[in-house]
Design brief:
Length: 176
């Protein structure tokens, strides 16, 4: 099995969740090839071979991030463009967002599966990006293997709530 976890991360929390999901998948399927890549590194040559595509991003204004919300988050974090494409945080370049990335996502191989996750605040009105990501995966003909999942951050910039990293690893294992 080839699994690819694609993430967009502003403060590093979604990247931490993506890495935990990858660890969970590797633990459950030691024979699997598991890649965890930022959205900027997830071109067709990476995603086209995936049997399982797991996609996640931060929740901005009740849903998936957009160009304006990514710029606002970068400004709020005081983050200049820099080193690591696809993740935001000190010294990084935001690269494309998931909305843009989905426009060029190629058709999957037959029987390809997908799953969606997000990071979000623990508030009734915070919304979540995972449902929008899941809709886009099904639109691109991925069969969802799990309900969209949200992982909680303590505040806008994080950190993750205690236990969320472990929960993400367990969720990743369940996707195998």
């Amino acid at each position: 099995m080839q699994a690819v976890i694609v993430y967009e991360s502003v403060y590093g929390n979604t990247r931490t969740v993506a890495e935990a999901i990858a660890e969970g998948l590797r633990g459950a399927r030691p024979d699997a090839v598991v890649r965890c890549v930022p959205v900027a590194g997830a071109g067709p040559e990476v995603t086209g071979r995936a049997d399982l595509l797991v996609v996640g991003g931060p929740t901005h204004v009740y849903g998936m991030s957009s160009g304006p919300t990514r710029r606002m988050a970068r400004l709020a974090a005081g983050t200049p463009a820099g080193n690591e494409p696809g993740t935001h945080g000190p010294g990084s370049d935001p690269g494309p967002g998931l909305r843009t990335w989905f426009r060029s996502l190629p058709e999957p191989r037959p029987g390809a599966r997908g799953a969606a996750f997000d990071t979000r605040a623990d508030m009734l009105i915070s919304g979540g990006a995972a449902h929008g990501i899941a809709r886009r995966l099904t639109h691109h003909h991925y069969d969802l293997v799990a309900a969209p999942e949200g992982f909680v951050v303590e505040s806008t910039g994080g950190p993750l709530r205690p236990g969320e990293r472990e929960r993400a690893a367990a969720w990743g294992a369940s996707l195998a």
